[in-house]
Amino acid sequence: MSSKTKIEWTDASWNPILGCSRVSEGCRHCYAEGIAGRFSQGKPSVYSGLAVMTNGHAQWTGKIVETRQLLQPLSWRRPRRVFVNSMSDLFHPGVSDELIDRIFAVMALAEQHTFQILTKRPERMLEYCYRLDTRAASVSLAMARTDWWDSPKASPCATGAIEDLINAGPLPNVWLGVSVENQAAADERIPLLLKTPAAVRFISAEPLLGPVSLAQWGEEGLECECGWRGLEGAAMRDEPDPDDYGFSCPKCGETCSHITQRTARRRPQLGNLRRRKRTPGAAHAPGLGPEPARSMQGSRRAIFL
Question: Among 111, 153, 244, 266, which residue's beta carbon has the most beta carbons within 10 A?
Fold first, then answer.
């Protein structure tokens, strides 16, 4: 399975899991669903059973499988932006917390890369990330159960390093985002995204099935790739072709479909961390609990369009 991608806002895709199910209207023409349906036919493959073809159209079955790509980013030396699970949703209910733990452990260790996680299930993302610092021992233990742990590349202090990185707050090389295909999806998902502890938050407005107003979340300002910054004048394009919706920059007129929100955070250096003792089976917080100090409140924020 190739890590190369034609997605313009990332450099590579990483699929430690495959499979999904529809959750909203924005899933109706999912490219990943079509790929899974096409390759699930014929001889057995990693896509077998993930989707079925009905009257020429693919539909997810809801089956989730783990691939052999979990450790792939650790072998990439050149820094890159990595789209996590382009063929699934990391926060799908069929993905176990332990598997999410392993994926976060890899992202913590592969600090040279920027990982972009996109979901249509922000409620689970919020719940998981709120209690991530209480799962630091579980995240490191989950990594210890992989083949990497017994390889020559594994560091003897990796367990403590992972725990320290997780305990320090949101991983600075992990972006968390939501898909918003219309105003209803934006109103439902963006507030949950803003409550989720993250170094960078972003919105993917594709496929954009109708106009979306971001005014109530855009008080920090907007920025286009051409250098324009502001808020007034950044309008939605409403073309006859629904696929041609997008954010239109008032300066260059180019159409963009992503905004990001950043939070400053100091990150401990992986190489300088000393090994910490870990407690197997550490207790997890059963609920969301109070908002932690690592939230966006009082921090420097910016939204880029």
Answer: 111
258 lies in some domain: yes
Q: Is residue 270 part of a domain?
A: yes
3-state secondary structure of 64: coil
* 47 inside domain: no
- The residue among 252 and 79 whose pLDDT is bigger is 79
Structural tokens at position 55: 């009257």
d(CA 171, CA 162): 11
Quote the CA–CA distance of 128 and 223 in Å, as a whole number: 30
Count the domains in the chain: 1
User: Which residue type is seen at 72?
Assistant: Q
How many residues are listed for the chain in this entry?
Answer: 305
Q: 296 φ, ψ to 5°?
A: -75, -15
**What sign for the dihedral angle of Cα 225, 258, 194, 107?**
negative
The predicted pLDDT at position 225 comes to 63
pTM of the model: 0.73
Distance from the Cα of residue 107 to its chain's centroid: 11
Q: Yes or no: say if 127 and 30 are a contact pair by the CB < 8 Å rule.
A: no
- Two tokens, residue 304: 């880029």
Tell me which amino acid residue 301 is.
Answer: R
Give the residue carrying structure tokens 């719940």.
Answer: 127
Look-up of token digits 């382009």: 86
Tokens 């041609």 belong to residue? 244
Amino acid making up residue 87: M
> Which domain range does residue 125 map to?
71-288+296-305
Evaluate the CA torsion angle 149, 151, 153, 155 in order and state its sign: positive
Q: From CA 80, how far away is CA 70, in angstroms rounded? A: 16
